[in-house]
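G., the chain you wanted modeled:
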Amino acid sequence: THITAISHSGVMSYEEYMAAELQSEVLVEVYVQAHQSWWDNKITVYAADEDGGYYLYEMACSEEDAAKLTPGTKIRVHGYKGEWAGEIEIVDATFEFVDAQEWVAEPKDLTQYLGTEELIKYQNQAAIFSGLTVEAIEFKNGEPGDDIYVTVGYNGQSFSFCVERYLTGPETDLYKAVSALKAGDVVDIDGFLYWYQGVNTHITGVKKLEKVMTYAEYDAAEMDAKVIIEAYVQGKQSWWDNKATVYAQDKDGAYFMYEMACTEADYAKLEVGTKIRVTGNKTAWEGEVEIVDATFEILEAEKWVAEATDVTAL
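Predicted structure as tokens:
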């Protein structure tokens, strides 16, 4: 598993690696982010550097060395650039350990790129996808124990994700959590942006969310009911005492968040057009319907500002 004949000066940048022809010889230095199960002196590794992600398919590796491939470990990899069903990978690879400080990439929130041509640029990187709706859960070979095929919906489109059993097998909490999901559940998903005839993220984390309401559902909710909405900031009052009062809107209606919990740092991020998910309680004061006792999170999305409605006639 050790390179001896390749000059270290030939190490490629991520840009050079991506520009290389398929089947060409490549040499990269990367950091291990995770790996699948070791078997038959081979191991499949998810790796990254500061510029991109790499998929090292069935890299030659002893069982002893496999135990050392912990997240953050730096390795120098020699192999050949390959492609399978759209997935760019390094095959027929060998490696050596590089003495360096450990490094693990921060996952990128790529939700806004689902369904766009931009998404593939982040292939093999650690990713976050927020607010997805589960459409179907299917076990390979029809029953638990093998891969789980997860179909999710976002913005009217469907996408195929996967629980890879050799990465997160049936004994893991992740496998059990995904197995328990049902159509209609809303989830945030973490994973590596694998590609198989389109996005096929290998899931490493899942968080089941309470259902985000449409404006009609929010409007119909009883007073004092718990509500969860997603809307775009249109304006805000002055911050004070870790609270912010915010005017927000989606394409169907408007919301008033009264004294929502907010740090001063987060207040600065509540720019006009920013999308947020708000959890709180619906109430009314002197006829004003509002959300109180609220918390929020900022969502990755293109900014949107509503056109003013002329209500003079009303």
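Helices lie at 14-19, 63-66, 173-179, 215-220, 264-269.

Shout if anything looks off.
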